[in-house]
Amino acid sequence: MTDQWVRRGRRVAGRAKRKAAVTYATQRAEWARRHVKGNPLEAYFRANQGRLIYKWLHFFEIYDRHFSSFRGKPVTVIEFGVQHGGSVQMWKDYFGPQARIIGVDIDQRCAKFAEDQIEIVIGDQEDREFLRSLAARFGPIDVVVEDGGHTMAQQINTFEEIWPAMADGGVFLIEDLHTSYWPSYGGGYRREGTFIEYAKKLVDQVNAWHSHDKDAFDVDEYTRTIRGMHVYDSIIVFDKGRVTPPRTEQTGTPSL
């Protein structure tokens, strides 16, 4: 009888401990939401007691700056790089109950992270056919967070194949671009073929309306659809939208 009561006591104590842990996590989340001012993503991250989220801390301000206008709307969001499944839950919380979150990863184990509002697709970013199938299946896409394999081929392939499927007004954010400087990922300072060097050429294309050497570079689809590029430490953000040829006007009375 004594052993029975000891075992029962241990079970009760175990349940109480788990309940206390859940209560603490909930209280910690609420505290963070109240006290981490101005950035709900950082608040979520600081309060997180669930699946692992691994981020550079300066990313949160950039995310919120470019994504806040999509919150509470019926948007389609794709994140490349699921890993432990914590960030797709963060995006679900951030964008709200109308959002459709798609996580893409090469690791088949990530399939278990699917849940309400979150779909997981398994595939390889180096496979352009796979990327085209994503674009056809989920486009038009409002937000992309490219946090996948970080090699040059994966980053460039993903941008080129997914960009045409971006919605007008959509945002494509590619992060961890410091790998463009890391030889282990195919990078190097001013090394041809890195995403950073690729993006520098896109800066030219944004300005191609003004080219006087059409054989060197001319207006193309990127010129017509990249409304803006925002460059940060390890991140570039692309704004999608129809761009028309620039024009000038004059107002007022000449003074000379």
From TrEMBL:
Tell me the superkingdom of the source: Bacteria
Keyword Transferase among record annotations: yes
A single GO BP term for this record reads: methylation
Q: Which GO terms describe its molecular function?
A: methyltransferase activity
Keywords for the protein's UniProt record, in alphabetical order? Methyltransferase, Transferase
| Annotated signal sequence range | none
Q: Which CDD domains match?
A: AdoMet_MTases
Q: What is this protein called?
A: Methyltransferase domain-containing protein
